[in-house]
Design a protein that fits this description.
alpha+beta, Creatine Amidinohydrolase, four-stranded antiparallel β-sheet, three-stranded antiparallel β-sheet, 5 helices, 22% strand, binds 2-amino-4-trifluoromethylsulfanyl-butyric acid
Length: 278
């Protein structure tokens, strides 16, 4: 089952969910500091979702086939953790990079899924560049989205930009359709060939969430069966937005007041419709 929404009330439900997910990141941003534990970040986000937004954190107890229930409300992926980092006692230190991945479920059942990278304290030029290139990869992918474009077009621009910078694209995890369920078809690969794969159709909602490694692309999964790290212990970065295919192109759903603005590199691609309507 894919989400292909036509109905304006479904689209408004998805817009609302996207904005709320992004607002959790806005809320937590000032707390991302040296000395703060990932458990504290998780607790603050959980309380904000529960008490202020009245949303449900989708990760909590999420259990796809073959996995144990995810024990926390958000994912915190630090340094060589690629994705699905479980909040715990780890304390952030200067120079760390951390991805916070938020998925909310609104009271009417819509999902919004988004993540950002944060640089803690004094970041190295190397970590800053990895986070920036990955941000550009996500936005280059978003800029491909319009009716009739192919999924391979998205993967191709992401892979090309990452590899040109000397980085690698993680293959085992991908973007996904999203709507009134968390993960559904289609799979949005972050590598591929132009003109290949499924065609995009107006009304589709899915995520673009490239995971880019500074070193080799291979992964290893920790004994908790969730935490995924780079096999070579190189740094990894990820950014994620939920998008809607519109008649004229793309609408980014996971935007809020403090969303980082799209990078220079995509501005020419959006032309007069920049920034993409939300
Ligand atoms: N938010 C992640 C994604 O982008 C999924 C996290 S599943 C969890 O698809 F259980 F680890 F939270
Ligand atoms: Co996602
Ligand atoms: Co996510």
């Amino acid at each position: 089952m894919k989400s292909i929404f036509k109905d304006e009330s479904d689209l408004n439900g998805m817009r609302h969910a996207g904005k709320l997910a992004s607002e959790v990141l806005d809320f937590i941003t000032p707390h991302i500091q040296e000395g703060v534990s990932t458990n504290t970040i998780d607790r603050l986000c959980h309380e904000y979702m529960r008490d202020i937004q009245h949303t449900i954190p989708a990760p909590l107890n999420y259990q796809p086939p073959g996995y144990p229930p995810f024990p926390k409300s958000i994912c915190t992926s630090v340094n060589d953790v690629i994705c699905h980092g479980i909040p715990g006692e780890r304390v952030l230190k200067s120079g760390d990079i951390v991805n916070l991945d938020i998925t909310v479920i609104t009271p009417d059942g819509y999902y919004g899924d988004t993540s950002r990278m944060f640089l803690v304290g004094e970041a190295s030029i190397m970590s800053t560049r990895l986070c920036q290139i990955t941000f550009e990869c996500m936005w280059l992918g978003i800029a491909q989205v319009k009716p009739g474009a192919r999924l391979g077009d998205i993967g191709y621009v992401i892979q090309t930009h990452a590899e040109k910078a000397g980085y690698s694209v993680v293959r085992e995890y991908c973007g996904h359709g999203i709507g009134k369920v968390f993960h559904q078809d289609p799979q949005i690969l972050h590598y591929g060939k132009p003109g290949n794969g499924e065609s995009l159709v107006e009304g589709m909602t899915f995520t673009i969430e490239p995971m880019i490694n500074a070193g080799r692309r291979e992964i290893r999964t920790m004994p908790d069966l969730w935490t995924v790290k780079t096999k070579d212990r190189s740094l990894s970065a990820q950014w994620e937005h939920t998008v809607l295919v519109t008649a004229s192109g793309v609408e980014v759903l996971t935007v809020s007041e403090h969303s980082p603005i799209p990078p220079e590199i995509v501005r020419p691609l959006f032309g007069s419709t920049f920034p993409p309507k939300s």
